[in-house]
Amino acid sequence: MKKMRLLSSFIGLLIALILFTGCGKKSVEDKLYGIWEISALLSNADIKKFSKESMPDGLEIEIAIKGMLTYHRGGKYNSNSTMTMRIKTVEGEIALKVLAIDAGEWSLHNDGKELVATSIDGTITPLDELTENILAQSPALGALMKPVKGLTSTSQILSISDKLMEVQEKGTNITFIASKKH
To answer: Which of 141, 135, 30, 39 has its CA nearest to residue 83?
Structure first.
């Protein structure tokens, strides 16, 4: 009788251990929830790769992005980031600085390997007088700096843990690394 109780207790403990161990693994979706700090530096070579038009000789552009991106339960996200675009020519260099605020919806596809985000609302605000003046004088550049409502982007999730995420945006093949804040 004692052996049966001992065996029964052992089996119960084993089942509980299996269930507990299985429940301890987080899904990609669970890892995604929270606040992520993002940063990226797009070199002139990166920009040439995804630019639809060739860049004139003597023109170099670099873009630095730094900000926060929050994934909420229910498939919503919001982000705010600063973007600095350095434009170098033979005549000199200028830096355009903007604040981008965006909100939208996200979903996972392909067994959690792809992250699809669709912008619902957003603003881009110049952060200095130089940027404001240049955007006002150049309608084409100003149009590029407007958020596109309804724009959908797809990123391949290269890796994700409780603290780090690496994604590669499809179309541009730009890789972003994010570290979790909360």
So the answer is: 39
Q: What is the pTM of this model?
A: 0.77
Residue 32 has pLDDT above 80, yes or no: yes
Instruction: Please give the structure tokens belonging to residue 94.
Output: 């200028």
Tokens 């003597």 belong to residue: 58
Q: H/E element holding 58?
A: none
Neighbour-count burial of 154, counting CB atoms closer than 10 A to its CB (0-12 exposed, 13-18 middle, 19+ buried): middle
Cite the beta strand spans of 17-113 per DSSP E.
34-42, 60-72, 76-89, 92-109
Tokens of 16: 């509980």
122, 149 contact by CB (below 8 A): yes
Query: pLDDT of 79-135, one tens digit each?
Result: 999 999 999 999 999 999 999 999 999 999 999 999 999 999 988 899 999 999 988
Do the Cβ atoms of 114 and 156 come closer than 8 Å?
yes
Contact 33, 72 (CB under 8 A): yes
